[in-house]
Amino acid sequence: MRVHILALNGVFDTGLTAVLDAFGTANALAEMTGLSSLRFQMKVVGLRKIITTTHGLSVPVTAAARAQTPDVVLMPAINHLKPEPLVQALASDEVREAGAMLRKWSGRGAMTATACVGTFVLAEAALLDGEEATTTWWLAPLFRQRYPRVRLDESRIIVQSNAVVTAGAALSHLDLALTLIRRASPDLASLTAKYLVTDVRTSQAAYTVADHLAHADPLVQQFERWARQHLAEGFSLDHAAAALATSKRTLARRMQSVLGKTPLAYFQDLRTERAVHLLKTSHASVDQIAAEVGYAEGVTLRALLRRRLGCGVREIRRNL
């Protein structure tokens, strides 16, 4: 399988090395286990002769314009954590050229994959229009605002949609590489994950800081503050709208446009966040914690955590 790794100037060091190490480890393990016919032919390509990483390392690359169409093109993220510099970077000539190259390869049948902020580059190139995708969780409000045609689900670490694979924040570059290895050989992907000492993860929800997302909009931030004060009560959209001096329709619309969630779903997020915090920092029983976040029984809280985080109470407390 031919894999082109398209590196842009300012590439996230860990993202680039994680995918290189994952594919390199898979190749070595394939050789060791008699699967030498299964090999990932990696090539780092770029739009310049030499790419400089975020930390100033120089990476020689093959000119993308002269490279053959790959089976997979994987683009590690450029390292922009805040909306303002990211928006400026998206307007650069390099990002526009990268988008044109990605569209060309995609049109010739290549699978396209990226993680974290790299999802913005794919969206700028219209490669995610009409597709499901994920992105780095803290930039989801900006993504949702800029690319309304993309069906965004930032709670997931990996989203596979037709010929595009997207991954969540930062270290999900490793999840992305393992996903691509798994498409070629589930057994090799499992072995590679064991050698790299990493687990299969499916959700970013456990890492999301809910109030960070709420700060993207004043009304959403007000709702977040109100909700935290009423976690132990049953949720009422009527009460929430009245407390914020707005209409139910306006509140629901703003929540959807900023967070892609209903007020009730976000309220549940805050309950989950509070419950996890108490599980990690107190010796209270599950039933006691459930009551504090508004559930009559601990079994309801257990089911909520399992559904939203993909793990249970024992796993949460075991990982302290």
UniProtKB/TrEMBL annotation:
Segments spanning the bilayer are none
- Its Gene Ontology molecular function terms? DNA-binding transcription factor activity; sequence-specific DNA binding
- Domain spans labelled HTH araC/xylS-type: 221-319
What SUPFAM superfamilies has UniProt attached to this entry? Answer: Class I glutamine amidotransferase-like
Superkingdom in the source lineage: Bacteria
Task: Show the InterPro entries listed in the entry.
Answer: Class_I_gatase-like (IPR029062), DJ-1/PfpI (IPR002818), HTH_AraC (IPR018060), INH-QAR (IPR052158)
Indicate what this protein is called per its UniProt record: AraC family transcriptional regulator
**Species for this entry:** Bradyrhizobium japonicum
